[in-house]
Amino acid sequence: MLGLALAAWLVPVLPVRAQRFDLIGVALSGIGMFLLVFGLQEGPSAGWQPWIWAVLVAGLGFMSAFVYWQSLNRHAPLIPLEIFRDRDFSLCTVGVAITAFATTAMMLPLIFYAQSVCGLSPIRAALLIAPVAISSGVLAPFVGRIVDTSHPLPVVGFGFSALAIAMTWLSIEMEPDTPSGGWCCLFAR
Fold it and tell me: Which InterPro entries match (predicted)?
């Protein structure tokens, strides 16, 4: 509620201009993403049967058709592919995707570990990962200014290194026979 109120107060009203809606792009990307996510989620429970692989291949086909359609659609593409000609933008996009994948992949096992091994409630397990979001929100403006005034490579290198060290430490620490003390004791009952 607070976010909606602040958005209504702080976000300026911009002039609206009529644009075409890329219905074909929406359909292709929506179907493609649905098939990919469905195949990946249902694959383990279905034993990766051939129909799951067919669903995944169909999803890749729809996503490929989406990219091809975006290259043809000059009027109102959902994703203007010209932006990927900028090397810095493309590298940043790949970096953000890798970081998001690694961070998301870290959260689920961490939540399960906190609940099953450390005995935390779901609320306390969620509080365990809250510092990730809080630190990202607090540090983003400062890191943005650093990247604006200097070369981004050392900043990105430090960020990737810190993420790799943290994930390595967690993979070593999160063993079933690890005592539930240590870092979990901060959130214990």
Answer: MFS_trans_sf (IPR036259)
Neighbouring residues of 102: CB distance < 8 A, sequence distance ≥ 6: 163, 167
> Cβ contacts of residue 160 below 8 Å, gap of 6+?
95, 98, 99
- Cα distance between residue 61 and residue 33, in whole Å: 10
Q: Convert 127-166 to b/e letters by CB count within 10 Å (16 or more is b).
A: ebbeeeeeeeeeeeeebeeeeeeeebeeebeeeeeeeeee
The CA distance from 170 to 184, in Å, is 12
Residue 94 has pLDDT above 80, yes or no: yes
pTM above 0.85, yes or no: no
Can you read off the two tokens belonging to residue 162? Answer: 């810190």
pLDDT given for residue 183 in this prediction: 54
pLDDT, tens digit (0-9, with 9 covering 90-100), for 28-80? 999 999 999 999 999 989 999 999 999 999 999 999 999 999 999 888 888 88
Q: How many CB atoms lie within 10 A of CB 56?
A: 17
Q: Which residues contact 89 (CB under 8 A, 6 or more apart)?
A: 83
What's the rounded mean pLDDT across residues 13-25? 81
**Residue that is written with structure tokens 């990247």 in the block:** 147
